[in-house]
Amino acid sequence: MAPSAIKTVGDLQASGARVVSVKEEMRRNLIKLLKEEKPLFPGIIGYERTVVPAIQNALLAKHDFILLGLRGQGKSRILRALSGLLDEQVPVVPGCEINDHPLAPICKRCRRTVNDQTAIGWLSRGDRYREKLATPDVTMADLIGDIDPIKAANERRSLSDEEVIHYGILPRTHRGIFAINELPDLQTRIQVGLLNIMEERDVQIRGFPIRLALDVCIVYTANPEDYTNRGSIITPLKDRIDSQILTHYPTSLEDAMSITLQEAWVKRGDIAEVRVPRLVSEIVEEIGFQARKSEFVDQNSGVSARMSISAMENVVSNCERRALKLDETRSVPRICDLYAAVPAIAGKIELVYEGEREGVVAVARRILGQAVQAAFKRYFPDAYASKPVKQKGVKGATGGSKDAPLDETAYKPVLDWFAKGNRIEITDAMSSADYARALEQVPGLKGIAEQNLKPQAEQLPLAMEFVLEGLHQNSLIAREDLDAAVSYKDMLKTMFESMGSSREE
Q1: CB pairs under 8 A, 24+ apart, for 13-20?
Q2: DSSP output for 271-290
Q3: Any residues with CB less than 8 A from the CB of 30 and at least 6 apart, and which?
Q4: CB-CB contact of 76 with 223 (8 Å)
Q5: Do 362 and 385 form a contact (C-beta atoms < 8 A)?
Q6: Contact of 17 with 44, CB cutoff 8 Å
Q7: Buried b (16+ CB within 10 A) or exposed e, 420-445
Q8: In sequence order, which ranges of 9-148 are alpha helices (DSSP H)?
Q9: Engineering a disulfide at 323: which of 20, 262, 272, 405 sits with its beta carbon 3.0 to 4.6 angstroms away?
Q10: In this structure, are residues 234 and 198 in contact, taking their beta carbons and an 8 Å threshold?
Q11: pTM (2 decimals)?
Q12: Phi then psi for 90, rounded to 5 degrees?
């Protein structure tokens, strides 16, 4: 019988409907998804072989579970996607605060009033998911409920009467999924209340014991850092949480790029068409990987995946700003545009003591430079040993080192040009034509970029600037940050100039 044809409790009984627990309902729908080979969490990338199978096992076992991981690992998003395992709509008693099933009511009012002629309502899956952020000021009244004295006075009922209770968010999620984010932040006494709900189904409100056979799937998130910095999960409650599932950051560059491509707002089109090359995407993602192993960043706090998303959006915004100023309809990011992402990086990292001494902006720029260097190594020959040169008197000797460079490398024409005192200035405000002309001054630069990156025509200037920045990060040429520009020049000359300035002072 279609839901539209079921109007009363009698109709529901005649249809053969039966009472199914929410965990049994989720298990049944999960089995259906697995048989049809449909994704359980659309949009969740990189967890296919780790987190997702563990969650599937927990759901098949009808477990309450906790997702344990650092910030920016998609924990809350996973929990919100669990509502997709609920039925599209389920019957409820209209007006019931806790969404009672018409065939098995648990609240006193519904037990007293429901009969075969009682009309029924329908509750959608989206309304059966509730979420609460755990904070130290959360009370038992928020989660469980409290006595409503005004209701007791108006209805002339005793304060011990179950019908004068104003239910909290947990009972109101009866027959649904209740998520608590950052569980360790809950006070100990509130966690004890959760323990009673999960294990004993026993609730005491103002000293009055009430037995509520709540049917709810309770899921949690927690950050490992919170266990020591802000609070902890009491042992009895942790024992009642059936499965603890560890989340993680993307383990591959491809997964990280897919996440940013999915989440970042880059396809705007209202000002200019910004085409983001793969090279820029790789460098932006590499920032996160470098930050997660930086000695200046607090690794216990983690580096959120949101950092790469915000960084990419800042880079695109810088391209839009340039296009707007120069009246261009198309824009390609440049290496100098990457430094527009420094505010996004600085706002997403927590520093250790050494990092605080350096300063957050300096650390952010250092991490960005390390990201460029890592990407440079993937595409270009080693800056110090790109072309083997035989050394006299040494049998089989091939190559040089940072301390003893080779006589000739693939970058020799570029380095020789700078050694003659030449320099090049680049700004993020230059037109595309001026940007390309400035880079074409450097002999051999175009050939190196074309040979190793094989870029499209519009991306060639980006590849050429990438070579210069890569050489700078390998300490082969100097880079000077001016007011609104960046200047590349010879490293030795810059060092001597610095020494001379120091002596004069």
Answers
A1: 13/103, 13/116, 17/91, 17/103, 18/103, 19/101, 19/103, 19/104
A2: S-EE---HHHHHHHHHHHHH
A3: 40, 56, 59, 60, 85
A4: no
A5: no
A6: no
A7: eeebbebbbebebeebbebbeebebb
A8: 9-14, 22-36, 51-60, 75-81, 108-113, 140-143
A9: 272
A10: no
A11: 0.87
A12: -130, 155
Distance CA 225, CA 243 (A): 19
Could you tell me the pLDDT band of residue 404, with boundaries at 50, 70 and 90? Answer: very low
Q: Assess contact for 285 and 257: CB atoms under 8 A.
A: yes
Give the number of C-alpha atoms closer than 13 A to the C-alpha of residue 460, restricted to the C-beta side. Answer: 15
As a whole number of angstroms, the distance between CA 146 and CA 252 comes to: 49
Amino acid at 244: Q
Mapped onto helix, strand or coil, the DSSP state of residue 377 is helix
Residue among 126, 128, 79, 129 nearest 99 (CA): 128
From CA 92, how far away is CA 99, in angstroms rounded?
6
Q: DSSP assignment, residue 261?
A: H
Residues 422-443 pLDDT 10s: 999 999 899 999 999 999 999 9
Q: Is 315 helix (H, G, I), strand (E, B) or coil?
A: helix
pLDDT in tens, 24-38: 999 999 999 999 999
| Residue where the block lists tokens 């491509």 | 261
Beta strand pairing status for 145-147 and 477-481?
Answer: unpaired
Contacts of 286 (CB under 8 A, 6+ apart): 253, 371, 372, 374, 375
In sequence order, which residues have a C-beta less than 8 Å from that of residue 376 and are 6 or more positions away? 383, 466, 467, 469, 470, 473, 474
